[in-house]
């Protein structure tokens, strides 16, 4: 057949749905959204749905504006940060020079670049899975990195992000901060000095709202307007009314989210330390997941063993360097104790066989 497009789609982690499973494969939050979100849902007047949703998402932008201390025109809202990324790729990556991103990072960057036929170059992380900023001084048509990175969990300090921005002032540098709440230091403070900076955030991870589909970009208003134009040319109502209401309620309950984020970080650090007793090691994570390995195990077997016990984690068979690693999202303390026990048991059973 003529005229048909062949593409390689993004493959997300599975979404199985058993009542007794422990689901640690897509970095979702194990805790529920803020009670304020539940309240806002209950109060929602269903009759409002007969109208189209807001085009400018001003109520959510105002809440974000108060939270980040920036005027509302610094924000672009979308149906999940994946969609926001798509708008930004279309708006900012139009050079014939390749955009740069790490060889091991969020899988969607390559998918969007392919889909939109944007030339790209994957820049290898070093042997410790670290981003080497000197590798980003080469000619490019833009840069996108996740900080902290996924699936490594590693965080680049702000000074190094600043070098990257300084060295690439004639292109847009996108910093995807999907996991920043678990790490601290956001690049937002650099916005004043570097108009080429665009930051991407999501409600899916730290805000426990993966199913709601809301994400946003933060940037210089002139550039944000260009991305808004892309959104208006594609799906002006991409954020539905209910999603805007509930996300706004989430932004307004910082105290609740600070609490669950702290719990997740404590569980993460507990887990990383305790798996060492059975010989595992992990990269230093500033996210809600850990990338683990073991010198004496075939990790794929462990992956299947966990799955057989209804514990779902992420294995990346297509990424060569991650062949012997598993990415495990951080669940509740109780869930992680169960996983730790099972890891321990697997090591013992493998030794005895
Ligand atoms: C999860 C994730 C996203 C996607 O978030 P959504 O808002 O759910 O689309 C984007 N970037 C990174 C690095 C992620 O890990």
Summarize the topology.
Blueprint: E1 22-23, H1 35-43, H2 58-68, E2 75-78, H3 81-92, E3 99-102, H4 108-115, E4 120-123, E5 143-146, H5 158-167, E6 173-176, E7 197-202, E8 215-219, H6 221-234, H7 241-251, H8 254-274, E9 281-282, E10 289-293, H9 299-308, E11 311-312, E12 314-315, E13 325-329, H10 333-352
Parallel strand pairs: 1-11, 3-4, 5-6, 6-7
Antiparallel strand pairs: 2-8, 7-8, 9-10, 10-13, 12-13
Helix pairs in contact: 1-7, 2-7, 3-4, 3-6, 8-10
The protein binds pyridoxal-5'-phosphate.
Pyridoxal-5'-phosphate (PLP) binds at residues 27, 80-82, 106, 146, 150, 176, 178, 202, 204-205, 210, 215.
CATH fold name of the largest domain, please? Answer: Aspartate Aminotransferase, domain 2
Which class of secondary structure composition applies to the elements? alpha/beta
Give the H and E element order: EHHEHEHEEHEEEHHHEEHEEEH
CATH architecture designation of the largest domain? 3-Layer(aba) Sandwich
Quaternary state reads: single chain
Proportion in helices: 25-40%
Q: Could you list the spans in which at least 5 consecutive residues all have pLDDT below 50?
A: none
Number of strands: 13
Q: The biggest beta sheet, please?
A: 5 strands, mixed
* N→C terminal distance: 54 Å
Please report which band the strand proportion falls in: under 5%, 5-15%, 15-25%, 25-35%, 35-45% or over 45%.
5-15%
**What's the CATH H-level homologous superfamily of the largest domain?**
Type I PLP-dependent aspartate aminotransferase-like (Major domain)
Helical segment count: 10
Molecular shape: globular
Radius of gyration: 21 Å
EC number: 2.6.1.9
GO molecular function: histidinol-phosphate transaminase activity; pyridoxal phosphate binding
Organism: Candidatus Enterococcus palustris
Protein name: Histidinol-phosphate aminotransferase
């Amino acid at each position: 057949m003529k005229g048909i497009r062949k593409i390689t789609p993004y493959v997300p982690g599975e979404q199985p749905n058993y009542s007794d499973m422990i689901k640690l494969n897509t970095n979702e939050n194990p805790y529920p959204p803020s009670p304020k979100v539940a309240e806002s849902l209950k109060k929602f007047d269903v009759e409002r749905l007969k109208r189209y949703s807001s085009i400018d998402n001003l109520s959510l932008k105002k809440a974000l504006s108060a939270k980040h201390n920036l005027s509302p025109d610094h924000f672009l809202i979308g149906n999940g940060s994946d969609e926001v990324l798509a708008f930004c790729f279309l708006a900012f990556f139009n050079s014939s020079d390749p955009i740069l991103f790490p060889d091991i990072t969020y899988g969607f960057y390559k998918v969007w670049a392919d889909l939109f036929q944007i030339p790209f170059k994957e820049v290898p992380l070093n042997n410790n899975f670290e981003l080497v900023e000197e590798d980003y001084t080469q000619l490019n048509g833009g840069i996108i990195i996740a900080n902290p990175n996924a699936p490594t969990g590693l965080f680049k300090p702000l000074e190094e992000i600043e070098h990257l921005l300084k060295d690439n002032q004639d292109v847009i540098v996108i910093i995807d901060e999907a996991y920043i709440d678990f790490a601290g230091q956001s690049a937002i403070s650099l916005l004043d000095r570097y108009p080429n900076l665009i930051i991407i955030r999501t409600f899916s991870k730290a805000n426990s709202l993966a199913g709601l589909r809301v994400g946003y970009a933060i940037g210089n208003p002139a550039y944000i307007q260009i991305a808004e134009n892309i959104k208006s040319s594609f799906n002006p109502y991409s954020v539905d009314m209910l999603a805007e209401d509930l996300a706004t309620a989430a932004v307004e309950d910082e105290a609740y989210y600070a609490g669950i984020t702290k719990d997740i970080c404590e569980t993460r650090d507990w887990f990383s330390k305790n798996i060492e007793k059975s010989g595992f090691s992990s990269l230093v994570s500033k996210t809600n997941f850990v990338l683990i390995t073991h010198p004496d195990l075939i990790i794929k077997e462990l992956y299947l063993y966990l799955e057989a016990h209804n514990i779902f984690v992420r294995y990346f068979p297509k990424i060569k360097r991650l062949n012997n690693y598993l990415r495990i999202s951080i669940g509740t303390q109780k869930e992680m104790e169960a996983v730790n026990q099972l890891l321990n048991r697997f090591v013992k059973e493998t030794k005895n066989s």
